[in-house]
Design brief:
Elements: H1 9-31, E1 51-54, H2 56-59, E2 60-61, H3 63-72, H4 77-97, H5 105-119, H6 126-134, E3 140-141, H7 145-154, E4 158-163, H8 167-176, E5 185-188, H9 199-209, E6 216-220, H10 223-232, E7 235-239, E8 255-257, H11 263-266
Parallel strand pairs: 1-4, 1-6, 4-5, 6-7, 7-8
Antiparallel strand pairs: 2-3
Helix pairs in contact: 1-4, 3-4, 3-6, 4-5
């Protein structure tokens, strides 16, 4: 789940290295009590996929957050947005690894924004903070999202959002984009009290649908999320909109696409 806008090569390298290190640290920390090992699968043909869970940013474009940051702080918006996005993930992982009390993603997002602004010596007023935060409630779909979702829904698949977003964040984005009725389940990691890639977060889709994990596909936006969902046992489709390399975490997605277009063709045939 990383911010789309480009940054200078040195900043991008630092950001991706930090993400990879944090994801690896979290996987190791969780390994003792919540195994990330994928269960052994039968050598027979893959089970037909009956449901697809989507990370929110595989469906919704966070580019408006960058644009709003730039309007608030001309010439520094992209840097602020990138720093903000990095801190969002670092804070979820640091809290998990250090066993700090769980707080929801909305509050983590706000804490990350405050820190990012302070790190750049920006004067973040309460009104500007509120305006920037509200952008996360009004994300719009990527151009390919709606037709792809409708095609998958018409094919009889159960569709869900499974993300770190709070339930309110998910509802606002879905409703504001006129996607009501396309998703059967809106699953926030708040229900598990654990952020992805904790297996308890991915388990929400299994519990909600009643399907085996091998019958559920997961559409990830971030490479780390693709690794986490694949390790859990989902058939994983990485929607790699940024054209990034696979994360060096010892696991690869089943399929990599640049958009949601073509998802149906990437799934095992249904019985």
């Amino acid at each position: 789940m990383m911010m789309p806008p480009p940054s200078p090569p040195s900043s991008l390298l630092h950001r991706r290295s930090a993400l990879a290190l944090a994801a690896g640290a979290l996987a190791v920390a969780l390994g003792g009590c919540h195994s990330l090992t994928r269960p052994p699968l039968s050598s027979a043909s893959p089970r037909p996929i009956r449901a697809i869970a989507f990370d929110a940013l595989a469906v919704f474009d966070a580019g408006s957050v960058v644009a709003r940051c730039e309007r608030a702080f001309p010439g520094q918006g992209e840097h602020l947005a990138a720093s903000w996005r990095l801190r969002q993930f670092e804070y979820t992982w640091i809290r998990a690894v250090s066993r700090r009390p769980y707080i929801d993603f909305w509050h983590i997002t706000q804490d990350a924004l405050v820190y990012a602004a302070k790190s750049m010596s920006l004067d973040l007023s309460l009104s500007t903070r509120s305006e920037l935060m509200d952008e996360w409630l009004s994300l719009r779909p990527w151009p390919d999202s709606v037709p792809a979702l409708r095609a998958l829904k018409s094919a009889g698949l159960r569709l869900a959002v499974l993300s770190n977003f709070t339930a309110a964040m998910q509802r606002e984005c879905v409703h504001g984009s006129d996607l009501d009725g396309l998703f059967d389940d809106l699953l926030s990691t708040d229900a598990a009290g654990a952020f992805k890639p904790d297996p308890r977060a991915y388990q929400l889709a299994v519990s909600a649908t009643g399907f085996n994990r091998e019958e559920i596909a997961f559409a990830a936006f971030g490479g780390w999320d693709a690794a986490g969902s694949k390790s859990f046992g989902f058939r994983t489709i990485w929607i790699n909109r940024q054209g990034l390399p696979v994360e060096e975490l010892g696991v690869e997605p089943d399929t990599t696409l640049s958009t949601l277009t073509g998802m149906a063709a990437s799934l095992p045939p249904r019985a």
